[in-house]
Structures are given as C-alpha cells and as structure tokens.
Specification:
- Residues 484-742 form the Pectinesterase catalytic domain.
- Among the domains are: 3-240, Exo-inulinase, domain 1 (Jelly Rolls); 247-331, Immunoglobulin-like (Sandwich); 348-472, Immunoglobulin-like.
- The protein is an all-beta fold.
- It starts with 22 loop residues before the first strand and ends in a 10-residue tail after the last helix.
- The protein has a 16-stranded parallel sheet that branches.
- The longest helix has 8 residues, at 497-504.
- The protein contains three helices and 65 strands.
- A hairpin with a 6-residue loop joins strand 24 (308-316) and strand 25.
C-alpha cells in the first residue's frame, strides 16, 4: 500500500485488529535515509514498528556477524524493494542457513518486557534450493538463543507451521502444527505471541497452536532465520502480548461439495475481539439461489437449493477486513435411476439377493471394462423397509471415523472410500452405517462414472429397479473372544480387521482377544485404544496384507484418538495404537503403500504405538513403508521380522525397542535413486532407557541402493532427547556408510558412553566377517563384550520391567 494509506486511527485504550498498518510515515513522503530510526511513526499502543519506507536497512544487523556460522551460514543479499508504491525488505537467500538479520538493540530499546507479540507480513519466494524453512524470531538474544515462528514451505498441500528454538547453540524444531496451504509469492500475516512461558503462533489471524517453554526469558529483540528460503518482509509491529488480534475461524473451512436436497453443511464459527470477548460476524452467500444461509448464534447452516457454485463469505464485526470463505459446489438432486441391467447376481458383492451380507464389508460392482470415476456423483445405500437413506459415499473429499474405544475416543481420518480395481468399482461404506440383520438396496447416480458399460448396456445409473439388494447377517455374539476375519470367505465373523477391533474394544480391558486374519488384501486404516491383550495373527506372512495409502499431507501428524467423532485429526499411520498393552502382531504384512516421501506426500507410518508401560510384540511379520515406517514408544519386541523404509524409518521415544533376529531393509529413495537414507532417529526421553537395540539382526538393502549411502542414525538435535541406539552382533551390507552415523545435527550425548548414545558391538558383514568400523564418527562408541552384555538378551533389554517375552 502507498505510504498515504498507512494512516490509521486507534482508540487510546484499545489496539485495533489493523495492527499490520500500525506503522505510518508522515504525510508528504518517506523520511530521509540519514535518519532511519525515525522512518516509522508507530500508532498508539505499538512499541516498535518497521515498514521500510525509509528505503534503508540501517536499523538492522545483516549477518553473519557475531558468529552466525554456529548454526549455519548466511551468504544472501538483503535489499529494500519498492513495488506499486510500497517498500519492503527482500532477502535473496543464495545458500543461506542461519540467522540472516537481527534488529539493532537501540532500535528495540522501547520494548521493556519479554511479554510481547511480533507481527509481520512475510512472502516466501522460491529460490530453487533444497530446504525451505523461514522463521520470524522473538526474544532473540544472539544467533544461538531465540524462539522462532516458522513456515516450512514445501508446497501448497504439505507445508507446515512450526515453532523452532535455538538454545545454547542447539537448534530444535520444537513443535509442528497441522499442515496448511502455504505457497510462494503470496503474502501471509504472521504473529508470534510470547507471554511468560507460553508461545503462540498465528497465520492470517488464525491461531495455529501454542506450546510451553521456559528456555529464554529476556525481551531480547527481533530476528530472521532461514534455511535456503528467499523471502520478503514488511509491516513489522510489536506490542503488548495481552492484546489479541480479532479472530474469526470456521470449524469446516475450504470447499463444500453438496447436492440439491442433500444434508446441510453446519459450520461452527468462533469470533473474538482483541480482549478475547465474543465478537459478532456476518455471513452472506454470493448466490442465494444456489446456497441459502441461516445463522443462529455461532452456528451457520448452508442449504443447497440449485446446481451451481457460490462463495459463502464470513465477515468479522470488529474488523470487516477480516473475512473467511467457503466455496460451495452444488450438484443436481439425486434421482433414482429406472435402468435395469438384467441379473446382477454375479456382478455384485454382496451378491444381489444375499441373505448373509457383512455389515463391515466393501461393496463391489463389476463393469464390462475398467470404469472411470468422475469427481461428482455418489453411491447411496437405502434401508429397504422404508426407503430411508442411511449412507452417501462420494468419489472425493471423503472421511471415515473408527471407534469409539472403551474410553470414548474415536479415530477420524480423511480417507478415499471409492476406488477402481480392474473392472470393479469398490466402495467402502462409512464405518458403522449398516446395521445387522437389516435389508438394504444400493443406488448409483448416473454421473458417477464416465462412459461405463454394465451387462452390455451403457451405464445410466442404478436404482431400486436394478435389484442390487441384500440382507446383512446377524451380529457376532458380543462375548466372542476368538474372531475370524476373511475378505471373501463365508464363515468369518468380520470382513474387515477394524470390524474385529471395534468388537474387541467393547470387551473388558483385560479380556484376551484373538483375531485370526485369513489370506487376502485388506485395504484399511486401523485403530485400537484402551484394550489390552489383543492378538492379530495372519494366515500367511506374505499373503495376509493389511495396507493403505495414508500419509502426512492426507492426515497430518500422529494421533491415538479424539473425544468426538469427526473425520479428521486421526494421523498418518495405517495402524494407530494407544494405551493397549500386550498387542501381538504375528504372521502378516502391515504396509503403507505411500510411495513418494517428499513433495505433496510425506511421512507414512505403518504403525504408531503410543504408551508409557505398554508392550508390543511383532513376530514373523513385515512392516513396509518409506519414511517413518515405525513410530514406537514404551516397549516393543520385534522378532524374526522385516522392517523396510528409507528415511528415519524406525523412530520414536521408546524406553526399550528390541529388534531380534530381524531384517532392517533400506529401500531405494523414491525421489533420488542415487541417495541412501537414515535407518533411525531415536528420541529417547531418559538417558537410562535402553532405547533402540538391534540384536543378531541384518541390515540389508533393496537392489539399487548405492554402496556407502545409508547411515545407521541421525539425531533430532534436541537436548530433550537421547540418541540411545545399540547394534549387537548384527550384520550390515555395504550400503552402510563407513562413518556409520550422521552428525548434522550433533547427537545427545555428543560422545557416547557405554550406557547412552550411538554404540555397536561385534558388527559384521552380511557374510559374517568382522566389519571394519575404524571409520566410525568420533561421537559413536564401540562396546566391549562386558559393556554389550546388558543388550545381549531380551531379558536384559527389558530388565527395567521384568519382561521376558517368548517366540
């Protein structure tokens, strides 16, 4: 904006939400370069401001100066640019990593307390380098001590918001918050709020998250840190942390794909003023003939009236410039097709006319050739007795909810529920929608598929007349503790593994439950919480496969459940397990089919095992993914088991995780086949915990993984975690680098002792010859036989809890 537009009016007692405009230059033009400290006149209630209209950077120290290389290097160029009459600072990064700018102390002298907020507009700029961090720093003491509110700019689908901190020269990504769209060459308003030990971060006035840390107390000053990310910054303001921004948030933002006559979209709106009291808001539809809007308190209902699109705009009462929107895409009303395709008995599953269909099974319809899914349309399930609609499944934007667990928690995930497999359309109903011993019929809209043929006829939809009806079987006895799962047999208790887990979670916590899974491919996301002594045994290690394509940018983070049944927040692991002692996984394959580990994709666990004293046993099994294959906590024993991945594919805060007689296989990097990977990232909470132990195991590689390309572990770089990893009597292929371990960042402890850090004993080649470990990094330690003894048997590894599991 031009300087004349920067003039704002603020009430003396209250700082308004227009804090971005809190710097103003006097009427008549910018200040001369000789007086940069007077370049900005701050509005009442603002302690510091900078809008770069002076045309200089004289109030800033451009680093490296004073040792920026302790965290990284800075070789970029900072300039003041002017576009469309507005001046801002731009930093062209080069290969910079570290603190690249810090405010001079005298410029920040007006800030007397550490309880302040700092806001700025920041624009990431693509500079074709490998990394992507960009941080706005507060309480900056020096290049080695600061807090940072950061953008991790990957792409529009998988960028993240994070808190970083540097403390005593150790850099830590302290907290990651949910994935959101952040793209290059677009301005974002960032706000970092520091009040006591609580730090909060906002983007565009949305509270992203908070965390508590007491490392850095003083007010310090402001700074900028990056890792290979060019940026522009403007309109920096600092004020009292007690003054909040005007907030307006929706619990269901983004797009709404609805249809005429379908269910309403109900949105909960949170609106607050700067003093955190309730604010008013307005809402309007750009086309009321397409979407009608009804507001009742903080609840807004959207009702689809006709086919088309409309933008629903929410506007803050205190700050009309603050707006949120929902894009509505409305399809025509669903109509039952009158088409008939003859006898469908051999073309559907459940078979048309079946009297024993599974309530937890998938629906399949076989076409004459592979069908093509459109992005619109739906499959619907109706109760036959009264034509009541019980479920609607769409080709995109779907989710599912599993549970509840015995303690009332659910796992909700974004999850495609339709797929094409060969000539078949395969559809998974939403979990729990179908009741037992009930008759249903299936309908498909005519616009769901493109150019499809069914029984020799062009597909024009499926209705009641087509005859795909079935009756679900009676429910298994509630007291049943030995359950069978089969994806196509007729004598099983359940079609899905999750169906059996839901059954188990309704039984008393200590009651043993055995789940036998027949050969087959089970396309599932799984959830188990609060239920001990569950055993899942496959019929065949290779032919019993539980798999799904779940990943960070589809379901961000890790979770063991939420206390409400919403289809999100359930995390990226295929199997999420929490507070479940003595879970046994035997003779099967658990696979995350996610292929690429970067870009629009991301981390993709097979299992997330969370607990404190809980135990997991995995034997004669395969765990296959790429990045972050296993995320383990508490205690676990992997025996005669394969674990495959490429980056940090075994990680977590385990107290003791033993891999005995197992194969640890590095796979070819999906983004660059010339690279290797990292086997482990240990984040052990206590120095005395055994951590990750590999006993009589083999480190192998997929064909194509280069020699010397893979390291045993890399550190999280945090003083709060210990890098406790031990290899005992293990064999290693030539893909393991001679140095063994990765030193960026440095491990904790920086030099291993006999009881903590990176250690190994009697490592050998795959052929059994003693391995030359003379090139290992100095931070690692070779153990003597006596020092290795506490890791040489499973009894010793689990001695802290007196556990001696048996094969």
């Amino acid at each position: 904006m031009a300087s004349s537009l920067r003039q704002i009016t603020l009430a003396a007692a209250t700082v308004s939400a227009a804090l971005l405009a809190a710097c103003a230059v006097p009427q008549g033009g910018s200040q001369p370069a000789a007086a940069p400290s007077a370049a900005a006149q701050c509005a009442p209630g603002i302690w510091f401001c900078e809008n770069f209209e002076s045309g200089t950077l004289a109030r800033w120290d451009l680093l490296p100066a004073g040792g920026a290389a302790t965290i990284g290097k800075a070789d970029g160029v900072a300039i003041v640019k002017t576009e469309a009459g507005n001046s801002f600072m731009q930093y062209d990064a080069g290969q910079s990593k570290g603190v690249v700018a810090a405010l001079k102390s005298e410029a920040f002298a007006g800030v007397k307390t550490a309880d302040y907020f700092v806001e700025a507009r920041i624009k990431p700029i693509n500079n074709q380098t490998s990394n992507k961090f960009l941080c706005l720093l507060g309480r900056y003491q020096d290049v080695n001590n600061w807090y940072g509110g950061c953008l991790n700019v990957q792409n529009s689908a998988s960028s993240k918001v994070e808190f970083h901190k540097a403390n005593g020269g150790k850099w830590l990504r302290a907290r990651q918050f949910p994935t959101r769209s952040i793209v290059n060459d677009q301005w974002y308003k960032l706000r970092m709020e520091m009040k006591g030990d609580t730090l909060s971060f906002y983007i565009d006035d949305d509270l992203t998250g908070s965390f508590t840390d007491a490392s850095i107390k003083g007010p310090g000053k402001l700074g900028l840190w990056l890792d290979n990310r060019s940026f522009a910054i403007d309109d920096i303001v600092v004020g009292d942390a007690r003054v909040k921004p005007v907030l307006l948030s929706l619990d269901q933002p983004g797009e709404w794909n609805g249809e005429v006559g379908g269910a309403e979209r109900v949105i909960e709106v949170s609106a607050t003023k700067t003093d955190s009291s309730a604010d008013s808001f307005s809402v309007v539809s750009s086309d009321p003939k397409v979407v009608a809007v009804t507001q009742q308190g903080n609840q807004v209902s959207l009702r689809a009236l006709s086919a088309g699109s409309a933008s629903i705009t929410f506007k803050s009462g205190s700050n009309p410039a603050l707006q949120r929107s929902v894009k509505a895409n409305i399809e025509p009303a669903f109509a039952l097709s009158a088409a008939s395709y003859g006898n469908l008995a051999k073309k559907t599953e459940p078979a048309a006319g079946s009297k024993a269909a599974y309530a937890d099974g998938e629906l399949t319809l076989s076409f004459d050739a592979p069908p093509v899914l459109n992005s619109i349309g739906s499959l619907r399930i109706f109760r036959a007795s009264d034509d009541q609609l019980v479920d609607v499944i769409r080709p995109k934007g779907e989710g599912n909810v599993f549970g509840p667990s015995s303690d009332g928690f659910y796992r909700g995930v974004n999850m495609p529920l339709m797929r094409v497999v060969g000539n078949k359309l395969v559809v998974r109903p939403h979990n729990g929608k179908l009741a037992y011993n009930t008759a249903y019929y299936v309908a498909l809209s005519d616009n769901l598929l493109k150019d499809a043929k069914l029984a020799g006829k062009p597909f024009t939809g499926l209705g009641k007349k087509a005859g795909w009806s079935f009756v679900t079987k009676k429910a298994p006895a509630a007291s049943l503790t030995r359950l069978t799962v089969d994806d196509d047999g007729s004598k099983a208790d359940y079609r899905s593994v999750q169906g059996a887990l839901d059954h188990a979670m309704k039984l008393p916590k200590e009651t043993p439950v055995s789940i036998s899974v027949k050969k087959g491919s089970y396309e599932e996301i799984l959830f188990l919480r609060g239920k001990d002594n569950v055993s899942i045994q496959g019929e065949s290690r290779e032919a019993t496969v539980i798999q799904f394509d779940n990943y960070e940018s589809l379901n961000t983070g890790l979770s063991i459940g939420m206390n409400k049944p919403v289809a999100s927040g359930g995390g990226r692991a295929v199997f999420a397990v929490g507070n479940a002692d003595m879970l046994v996984i035997d003779r099967l394959t658990l696979k995350n089919t996610h292929y690429k580990r970067l870009g629009v994709n991301g981390q993709a666990e097979t299992i997330f095992f969370m607990g404190d004293k809980e135990r997991l046993i995995a034997k004669n099994a395969n765990f296959i993914s790429r990045q972050d294959t296993l995320q383990l906590n508490a205690y676990s024993w992997f025996y005669n088991t394969l674990v495959a991945g490429d980056v940090d594919f075994i990680w977590g805060s385990s107290k003791a995780a033993l891999f005995e007689n197992s194969e640890i296989r590095t796979v070819v990097d999906s983004t660059d086949a010339s690279k290797g990977g990292y086997v482990l990232q240990a984040r052990v909470s206590n120095a005395a915990d055994k951590g990750y132990v590999f006993l009589n195991s083999r480190l192998t590689r997929e064909e194509g993984v280069p020699d010397g390309s893979t390291v045993l572990a890399r550190s999280a770089g945090s003083p709060n975690y210990f890098d406790n990893v031990v290899f005992v009597n293990s064999r290693m292929d030539k893909h393991i680098a001679p140095e063994g371990w990765w030193l960026n960042p440095l491990p904790n402890p920086a030099k291993a002792s006999e009881k903590a850090g990176w250690r190994e004993y009697a490592s050998a080649t795959l052929q059994g010859a003693p391995l030359n470990v003379g090139g290992r990094v100095a931070a690692a330690r070779g153990l003597s036989a006596a020092e290795a003894a506490p890791y040489a048997t499973r009894e010793q590894v689990f001695s802290a809890i007196g556990w001696a599991p048996k094969p």
